[in-house]
């Protein structure tokens, strides 16, 4: 046995000695001679059509959610690229939309078109546990504080199904950028992506969220089988330093949870110091916190064990653990906490006690070219909001809605256009950055603006707020709205006026991904029957692949240009 591995095992034996039987260790070590299993989560946010009903929140608890396992496995069994894999998808016991990747698909799964269309997300199966325990429901306000690269946020967004709101944050800018891209690809639209220290968010959003996922940075012992570099990384780290950081993050996250709200704390490491010990200390300081039992379809699933009764605290055994020898996942710890009364932060965290919301609702309008905030208005005054373009051209709120309505009438199906009209008037908050238009849906007001910014608040780095709808381009005879790629990913077949309807076998999407050009002749056979294409004018047609919105095509007299983001090309 390799010396490093031996040293890891003996450190772990010290940590777990009081809690496991002697026969645990031979089985644990034997698991490291086995190959880890890859897994994926079917992304029902994309894989199920976003109907007008769902958009306006009248069907948030969708059929797919009630029979998620069936809907997800039907998707896999029917997808054309997986025809040779029919019925080979073994379900992840604790995740209705999770499946192990069959050996036959191991090399191809990360390269297939379904992956590039955001129809599934590759995720280690034990990492699916926390978001399934959290079980976000329609209209929940949810935070995922240590969110990059975004596996758990993607699942939460699918569970919210376009309702409520989701804040996904990561302290690392490079990782937050990956998080943003992953969420964009997954067609997530009801969320904000932030790059902030949790300390700052705790000041701004006290007692705000219904549900929180806190998947803390940890020593990563559960990653060692999958990733050999994780062993050296683990040995270079001091688990006690991690447990201090985790305790601090838990206190901060807790202060942003509403009374009655629920928080899942999770790690992908085995030692008790970063798991039960952190929760035990937290429970001692927070009488308003209780450990909740986890629903039996998860806690009794194959491969799941109860957490350990650290220092004889049996409440902790309602938490869950996954070990690699149980055959189903690499390693995870998760516990579900409920906040029973108002927040009472521990002094020693140095965090504010009883801090209050500081900011009234507002909308910011930022001109990145001028590199400063040029206007900030209260949300209540949104109707008077002026959107200023760097060209000097001014759009008032009415002009902006006119542009969007003109676009939706010209390009979206009548049912979908009506749903968007309803939503735009329900959430009439927009932000213009340069010429890019973001639509702020039902999101908390998190960005301190101009004069309202208090001296003791650093400014937050917001990577995205709501959905990037598109760009507003100025022409001699007025402005035009150019839809974004994110917008294309919200759409499905038969939801637009102009559609280039393809199958995988047609190869059009493949050409786009490879950066190759298209001609009118190539796409001509795939025009939808919904409307004849008017080739004289420039129009936007949605390219669909097997019914899923893949990207916009700008079609003018004799040219076709794909609006697929250049920086996403392979
Ligand atoms: C275990 S990873 C999260 C994995 C993620 N939940 C997922 O499922 O894709 C922990 C993350 O916490 C972030 N992090 C570390 N310290 C943080 C802090 N003070 N505030 C916010 N995020 C932090 C790290 O950058 C890292 O991306």
From TrEMBL:
<protein>
    <recommendedName>
        <fullName>SAM-dependent MTase RsmB/NOP-type domain-containing protein</fullName>
    </recommendedName>
</protein>
<keyword id="KW-0949">S-adenosyl-L-methionine</keyword>
<dbReference type="InterPro" id="IPR023267">
    <property type="entry name" value="RCMT"/>
</dbReference>
<keyword id="KW-0694">RNA-binding</keyword>
<feature type="binding site">
    <location>
        <position position="170"/>
    </location>
    <ligand>
        <name>S-adenosyl-L-methionine</name>
    </ligand>
</feature>
<feature type="domain" description="SAM-dependent MTase RsmB/NOP-type">
    <location>
        <begin position="28"/>
        <end position="340"/>
    </location>
</feature>
<feature type="binding site">
    <location>
        <position position="215"/>
    </location>
    <ligand>
        <name>S-adenosyl-L-methionine</name>
    </ligand>
</feature>
<comment type="similarity">
    <text>Belongs to the class I-like SAM-binding methyltransferase superfamily. RsmB/NOP family.</text>
</comment>
<dbReference type="InterPro" id="IPR001678">
    <property type="entry name" value="MeTrfase_RsmB-F_NOP2_dom"/>
</dbReference>
<dbReference type="InterPro" id="IPR029063">
    <property type="entry name" value="SAM-dependent_MTases_sf"/>
</dbReference>
<keyword id="KW-0808">Transferase</keyword>
<dbReference type="Pfam" id="PF01189">
    <property type="entry name" value="Methyltr_RsmB-F"/>
</dbReference>
<feature type="binding site">
    <location>
        <position position="197"/>
    </location>
    <ligand>
        <name>S-adenosyl-L-methionine</name>
    </ligand>
</feature>
<keyword id="KW-0489">Methyltransferase</keyword>
<feature type="binding site">
    <location>
        <begin position="146"/>
        <end position="152"/>
    </location>
    <ligand>
        <name>S-adenosyl-L-methionine</name>
    </ligand>
</feature>
<dbReference type="InterPro" id="IPR049560">
    <property type="entry name" value="MeTrfase_RsmB-F_NOP2_cat"/>
</dbReference>
<feature type="active site" description="Nucleophile">
    <location>
        <position position="268"/>
    </location>
</feature>
């Amino acid at each position: 046995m390799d010396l490093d591995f031996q040293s890891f095992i003996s450190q772990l034996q010290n940590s777990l000695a009081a809690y496991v039987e002697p026969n645990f260790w031979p089985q644990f070590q034997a698991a490291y001679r086995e190959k880890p299993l890859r897994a994926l989560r079917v992304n029902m946010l994309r894989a199920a059509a976003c109907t007008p009903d769902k958009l306006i929140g009248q069907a948030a608890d969708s059929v797919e959610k009630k029979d998620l396992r069936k809907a997800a496995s039907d998707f896999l069994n029917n997808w054309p690229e997986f025809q040779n894999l029919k019925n080979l998808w073994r379900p992840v016991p604790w995740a209705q939309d999770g499946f192990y990747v069959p050996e036959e698909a191991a090399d191809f799964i990360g390269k297939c078109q379904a992956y590039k269309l955001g129809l599934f997300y590759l995720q280690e199966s034990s990492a699916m546990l926390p978001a399934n325990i959290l079980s976000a429901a329609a209209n929940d306000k949810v935070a995922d504080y240590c969110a990059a690269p975004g596996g758990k946020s993607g699942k939460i967004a699918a569970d919210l199904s376009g309702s409520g709101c989701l804040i996904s944050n990561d302290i690392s800018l490079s990782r937050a950028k990956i998080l943003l891209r992953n969420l964009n690809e997954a067609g997530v639209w009801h969320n904000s992506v932030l790059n902030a220290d949790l300390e700052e968010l705790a000041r701004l959003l006290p007692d705000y969220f219904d549900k929180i996922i806190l998947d803390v940075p940890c020593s990563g012992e559960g990653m060692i089988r999958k990733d050999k570099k994780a062993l050296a990384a683990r040995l270079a780290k001091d688990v006690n330093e991690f447990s201090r950081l985790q305790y601090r993050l838990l206190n901060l996250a807790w202060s942003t949870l509403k009374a009655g709200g629920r928080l899942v704390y999770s790690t992908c490491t085995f030692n008790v110091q970063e798991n039960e010990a952190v929760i035990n200390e937290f429970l001692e300081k927070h009488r308003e916190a209780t450990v909740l039992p986890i629903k039996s379809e998860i806690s009794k699933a194959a491969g799941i064990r109860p957490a350990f009764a650290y220092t004889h605290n049996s409440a902790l055994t309602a938490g869950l653990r996954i070990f690699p020898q149980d055959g189903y996942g690499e390693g995870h710890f998760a516990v579900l906490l409920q906040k029973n009364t108002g927040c009472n932060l521990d002094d020693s965290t140095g965090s504010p006690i009883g801090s209050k919301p500081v900011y009234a609702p507002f909308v910011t309008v930022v001109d990145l070219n001028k590199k400063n905030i040029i206007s900030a208005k209260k949300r209540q005054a949104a109707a008077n909001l002026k959107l200023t373009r760097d060209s000097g051209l001014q759009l008032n709120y009415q002009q902006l809605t006119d542009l969007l309505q003109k676009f939706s009438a010209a390009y979206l199906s009548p049912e979908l256009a009506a749903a968007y009209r309803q939503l735009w008037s329900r959430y009439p908050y927009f932000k213009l950055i340069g010429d890019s238009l973001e639509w702020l849906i039902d999101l908390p007001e998190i960005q301190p603006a101009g004069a309202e910014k208090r001296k003791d608040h650093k400014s937050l780095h917001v990577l995205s707020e709501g959905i990037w709808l598109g760009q507003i381009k100025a022409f001699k005879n007025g402005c035009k709205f150019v839809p974004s790629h994110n917008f294309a990913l919200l759409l499905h077949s038969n939801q637009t006026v102009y559609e280039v309807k393809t199958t995988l076998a047609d190869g059009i999407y493949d050409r786009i991904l490879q950066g190759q050009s298209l001609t009118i002749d190539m796409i001509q056979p795939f025009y939808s029957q919904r409307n004849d294409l008017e080739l004289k004018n420039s129009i936007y047609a949605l390219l669909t692949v097997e019914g899923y919105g893949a990207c916009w095509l700008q079609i003018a007299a004799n040219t076709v240009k794909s609006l697929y983001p250049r920086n996403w090309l392979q």
